[in-house]
Amino acid sequence: MDEITGKILLNIKYKSCLNAVKYCLNLNIIIACHDNGTIFAYFLEES
Predict the structure, then answer these.
(1) N or C: less crowded end of the chain, CB within 10 Å?
(2) CA distance 32 to 7
């Protein structure tokens, strides 16, 4: 989601629910944990 406009920039669908999201400031990544045990890391680009 764009921080200024609120526009959805990326739509990702999984077969499990999202349980937790954490932003790591030092690495500039978002970590997402799902109820099926999967963990995803999204690397953010600076614009």
Answers:
(1) C
(2) 20
- Under DSSP, the state recorded for 23 is E
- Single out the residue of 6, 12, 22, 19 nearest to residue 31, CA to CA: 22
Task: Say how many Å lie between the first and final Cα of the chain, rounded.
Answer: 14
- Tokens representing residue 26 in the block: 């030092």
* Closest C-alpha among 45, 41, 47 to residue 12: 41
35: confidence class by pLDDT, cuts 50, 70, 90: confident
In whole angstroms, give the CA distance from residue 27 to residue 15: 27
pLDDT of residue 47: 63
The SS3 call for residue 7 is coil
